[in-house]
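Protein modeling request. Please complete all fields; requests missing the sequence field cannot be processed.
Requester role: graduate student
Desired output: 3D structure, token encoding
Chains: 1
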Amino acid sequence: MIGTLTLVLASLFGFTPILEPPSAANDSIFVEDAYYEHIPGEANYDLVQDRLSCIEKTIPLNYNTKVQAFINYFTVKDREYTQMILRRKNVYFPLFEKYLAKYGLPDELKYLAIIESGLNPVAVSRAHAVGLWQFMSPTGRSFGLHHDWYIDERMDPAKSTEAACKYLKQLYGIFGDWELAIAAYNTGPGNIRKAIRRSGYKKTFWEIYPYLYRETRSYLPQLTAMIYTINYAHEYNFIESDLEYSIESDTIHIENYLHLKTLAAQLNICDEDITKLNPSLKRGVVPKEAKKYVINIPKDLKPHFNQNRLAILDSAGKVGQSEIQYLARNTEGSTYGREKTYYKVRSGDVLGLIAERYNVRVSDLRSWNNLRGNTIRIGQNIVIWQKPGFVAHQKSQPVLQQLPNGVKTYIVQPGDTLWDISRKFDGLSIEKIKSLNELESNNIKPGQKLIIGT
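Delivered output (454 residues):
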């Protein structure tokens, strides 16, 4: 739940709090049901196949009913989405082409970012993949993309594109086949190897197709369909209007805290432009801990900045520093100023008990571990971000007790329900708990002692 303070500070700092993660393109475009749509007649089928052969370069552009289903989607069902891509592509394609050429990769891979994110640099999927190239946290870090509460380099177009090129080159080195490498980008190389084994060691994407996950089966057909659609958009009456272009920029180096909206005001540009140039600054500020941080500003304003550097940085360094630090420390799931540790769940543990032991909130534990409820399992490793120097304490009163008369009791923890408790002990049901404790309803409260057996 986003509190009033967060919303007020969001207005001050010029960032949008994520109430629900904005869906990436590969969350919303999944049209396997469209495979059963009308397939064009033989003449039209041959026409599309011929067009694909004309634009095919390094990556095979195989044509079949699955590809046609996505062509139908992009050209008929959701023309608005395709129109959006046509508007955005000139912003990012030159950047993609630059890095693909640097790493000697096929130019066609630039279309992959459309399937991943819809060319949205701040896209966040339901699985918490982020940015134009939809890096998950571990993969992003392994390719040098730093992220914390303030900054997420997975949202930096240049850095994430270079990381994607390195990853794609690595995947091609593993499989020696671009279709398999592309599929591996979606699902991971381990799942591709697994599908190859299950297929009897077949060697092509379409041979292992039945053994892939549903989303991955759709991934390559989407890419082929998008390459076709963008190259033949005029044949489907798309009009390229209101085109977007990147802002020509230059860089400045920041040594201390900086408030991005104030910088924009000092440079006399709109907030939206400075945000577009620096999408990796999630909170609209450069934290004071980020030494020599690189900021992008419009190239034509670099001389003005250089002439007035001290005054501009002085103004932009005074706004909202204490407020943003308070927000960083207190926002649900924040890791700011904390150290990562792990706790292995033991018998009798509940989230409330673990939270109390480490002096954190249950909501923080859920956020750090992507938990939707309170259910945890014995042996599970729970990620905990604790304050530096903090030593976890044991609860003074044990959760489980056995009284002299043999009666076993359980201390209700924050977040517990009768259903949660019943699952922790063999042979214990909700009705049995209610009977043993003469409960008339399912209502319980933290600290309450319940009889769970004799």
